[in-house]
Amino acid sequence: MSPFVRSSRFGTFFWPILAWVLALLFFFPIFWMVLTSFKTDADAVKPEFLFFFTPTLENYFNMTENYDYWRFAINSGITSVFATLFTLSVGVPAAYAMAFNPSRHTKDILVWMLSTKMLPAAAVLYPMTFLTKNMLGLFDTHFLVILVLSLINLPIVIWMLFTYFKEIPKEIIEAGKMDGVSFWGEMGDIVLPLAWGGLASTALLCFIFCWNEAYWTVRLTTTDAATLSKLIEGNRAPEGLFFGRLSAVSTAAVGPIVVLGWFCQKQLVRGLTFGAVK
Q1: Helical H runs in the chain?
Q2: Cβ-based neighbours of 87, under 8 Å, separated by 6 or more
Q3: Which uninterrupted H or E stretch holds 240?
Q4: pTM score, two decimals?
Q5: Winning range, highest mean pLDDT, from 12-16, 56-60, 83-87, 106-110
Q6: What sign has the CA pseudo-torsion 272, 187, 150, 152?
């Protein structure tokens, strides 16, 4: 038997096993979080109750009855949806202009936008808090959270859309212009339908980033515009963390995103592989 055949058989078994091991390693923290959410706070810190314990829904009932989970969830939904829509309304025209009407400074602008992601958030925390609380009066408002989330994700959105738009053949755009298609007709009938997969995946990722953002939503809100990140952060006390309640709240916060990603996985994969060689 040739070495090539032995190597092929080895790879047939080895790579799937390695993939399963890596998948289980990545999935285990989520599994452990869900498992802990059905334990009491006392059982969650006892090693003898790793798997053998009496499941309880006390943490979930406590979350909805005493911690007003739905108000925080609605705030997360409002800010994530509107921040995604606002980011796309700015990112689509910007990416379109740089993809189809580039200048000699286009690459420099793209690099500059991406460099803003390198700024440590803690460096601008104090001026942001001072301006929004003492001067602008926007502290703990939905408008402030939506604006901050939009600005945070705008560079990534423009980069992704720019990549997708660049994959559209310019000949199709030129043919549309020769037929007398207006700018809005070009956008609505040619560009967006061709880049729909990339646009949908960008919107989904932007929504996930907005939903998962914790640093700014915790520090720029108190009660009125507080999101699920604020609720999760509140499950701690001087005596320690309430692991059972914390896991229940975290599971409830992760659940909608997991369900959304599951139903949109085909669109997400299509968008992430847009323009790939097939």
Answers
A1: 3-37, 41-44, 58-66, 69-100, 106-115, 125-130, 142-166, 170-178, 183-186, 192-194, 196-212, 215-219, 228-233, 243-263, 265-272
A2: 149, 150, 153, 154, 157, 206
A3: strand 240-241
A4: 0.82
A5: 83-87
A6: positive
Backbone angles phi and psi of 105, in degrees to 5 = -105, 5
CATH topology of domain 69-234: MetI-like fold (1.10.3720)
- The pair of structure tokens assigned to 198 is 């990339």
Tell me how far apart the alpha carbons of residues 245 and 41 are, in angstroms, rounded to a whole number: 7
Read off φ and ψ for residue 30, nearest 5 degrees: -65, -45
Distance CA 45, CA 29 (A): 16
- The Cα 21–Cα 239 span in angstroms is 37
CA 81 from centroid of its chain's CA atoms: 11
Under 8 Å between Cβ of 72 and 231: yes
Domain boundaries, the chain: 69-234
- In the predicted model, is pLDDT for residue 201 greater than 60? yes
CA dihedral 147, 153, 159, 160 (to 10 degrees): -110
Sign of the Cα torsion 117, 119, 120, 125 reads negative
Q: How far apart are CA 53 and CA 30, in angstroms?
A: 18
Sign for the pseudo-dihedral over CA of 88, 93, 94, 96: positive
Cα distance between residue 272 and residue 201, in whole Å: 7
